[in-house]
Structures
1.
Amino acid sequence: MAGQRRNEIGRAVPLLAPAYLWLTVAIFLPLSAMIFFSFMTGLPNTGKPWSFTLQNYAAFFQEDIYWRLLLSSLRLAAEVTFWCLIIGFPAAYALAKLLKGRMREAIFLLIILPFWSNGLVRIFSWAMVLREGGLLDTTLNAILPFKISIDLMYSYPAIVIGLVHSYVPYMVLTCYLTLQAIDDSLIEAARSLGASRWQTLRRIIVPLALPGVIAGAALIFVPVVGSFMEPRILGGRTGTFYGTVIEDQFVAVFNWPLGAALSFILLAVVLVVLALASPVLRRATS
């Protein structure tokens, strides 16, 4: 058995080595540098004297603006995840159980279309739709018998709309995979035994699709917490969140140590959230 195990490991190492080498170079080395920067008073390449300190992490607890923005970012991520679920789950169910053939392929194409364009293109497209005199405002005034003014730019709803548009495909795809794996005979058996559509959905479809829902929620929640492009462009002054503050530290203020410390605090909070959700994950996948 030991010899067989060594042979299996020997065959797996050449296949795993490129992936782990890439992860080491592209992820772990930059993270190591960021950890080093987060404990510094300044950058070594500036020529100024520097030393190690914990003040960058202490600033998060001393300045209430940082944890208030973090709470706002967590709320934004939860809200975007909720709307992605509300929009994505019915679409995934229709793709998995209702649509067939070319119609399914056409809907899939529309769903993954956001992946084919640059993120900035999507955001500025929404800016042209949501601003006063934009596409939405012009269309509604052309249809309605009375004049209205719709200007959602630089508002919280505009941020949510932009983020939902960017991340809802993740929810659709993950839910589709789990819904597609549900045997249709289970649904037919429930209906033949007198279960209503709501009972079938609540007691069969949703529990079996829960792993896909949770996977999609994780894929959406984690990046949205630290998002900064959509809040910056679509939110304006109201788009100040934890991710935008981190971006300012690196780009505008050039305070990399503080930006690195705030980034790792965000990473720690996300890991805590995932750890708290792990019992649900284990029950859903068991």
2.
Amino acid sequence: MNSMEKTRAFLQSIGMPKGDAYDLPTSQKRFSDGGQYRFEVPGIQGPKVMEALLEAMDKYGIWLHRVTQTKGIMMLADQDIMQMVNLAKKAEVELILAIGPRATTDTSASVNTPEGVRMGYRLRGQEQIVRAIEDVKRAAAFGCRSFLVYDEGCLWVLNEARKVGEIPADCRFKVSAHAGHGNPCSAKLLESIGANSVNPVRDIQLQMLAAMRQAIDIPIDIHTENPKSTGGFIRHYEVPEMIRIASPIYLKTGGSVAQTHSWDSTEDDAKKRAKQVTLVKRMIDCYYPEAIQSPKGNA
């Protein structure tokens, strides 16, 4: 057995895949309701846009499971949060609000340099951790229970806070693609420190995605399309295979409407995002009609 074979054997011995899953095995894992996939629309930054999105989805007769805001809780007024929470309850969708403090809104200019951009949205200093926890507490007080996390240390401490009741025990944490994770071992780490779902890098390939699914049980969030700022590529034709090999999976749809991650979507943009969901649903119905979508109201 050569060195690489020993490395692969070691990975298998600790419950990890021995490499990328080029055979693309079918995932037998499911959401608790038996579903293989759910729809998520990201980049919905306020109540008016959220309302327009939900109305458009009703007209198309397709139900959403998640709506995600990405600019940050600190950019929302109290009234905005309350309205979005109420809209989510009425429509039976999960509302995910992004934790506001991040490298790009800190006083450091490093993140804006070619090398500093590798920092992503991670937090700098313990004061930023304090502020992040305060952001979660604020939104939780208005009834929000799901949060978008960009920093692994922040995830860990929020999980600890959840355990001891510092924040509500039913809070849920989704790790953003902007944290930059794209391998099974990283996904396993995130699961072990409290992630309820993980969004790998946007250009993760199918064999990589299949290997990640072998390593973790929590849902994987995958972009079916992307803003121009992150490549602008559209993966609609790959969606049926994504579902088959990576379920349970959230299909993040509508991103190509935006120019950037924190694009301030308009009501017209929301309607365009809803249309993108119908295009993805068509691909599923055409090429994987037996795929099971989670019922409305499950999150």
3.
Amino acid sequence: MKNVNNILTLALSKGRIFKETIPFLTDAGVIIHDDPETSRKLILNTNNPKLRLIIVRASDVPTYVQYGAADFGIAGKDVLLEHESYPSGTLYQPIDLNIAKCKLAVAVKNGFNYHEMVKQGARLRVATKYTKSAREHFAKKGVYIDLIKLYGSMELAPLVGLADAIVDLVSTGNTLKANNLIEVEEIMTVSSRLVVNRASLKNNEKHLRPFLEVFAKATI
């Protein structure tokens, strides 16, 4: 998708990433005219006529950037690792913004002896939407698993016998605790990163580079 009139498009998702991105935009002198939590608009204009924001699902940010519908975006490491479809070199990931920090972890129902089951070589049923990361994690451990892909309410799976374990993002751990689950293994720490379409960086560097410099400076 060709950039029109050199207007830059930044892809963001609602929630924590959006809120923690605002200080970066403020440092760049950008004021957003609408709040995505209260507005139904999916394209948000700013006080900068050369920058607009689009609000998309977190898992779709890399796709919008990959195909040039957005010049740049912010996505979690978890999402980027799962986004297997983009050709090598299409997405440039210059900056770890160190925002929206959490971890990808394995959790089970309280009382389930996960480590003993792994030690015995048991085959586990694992529910997750992070299938690539989960598959790679258990493969490295030599653990055989049956993956069950879910898109939400992950904590329910062990409670109703759908799965032995889940792989999901954990921040405070309060949701696990409220559902009688416990974290048994950390897979990786997760933070959000700036991703840039390489063609946009090449063809519109004059307008894009100042924003990249603001993001980079703010993370020092």
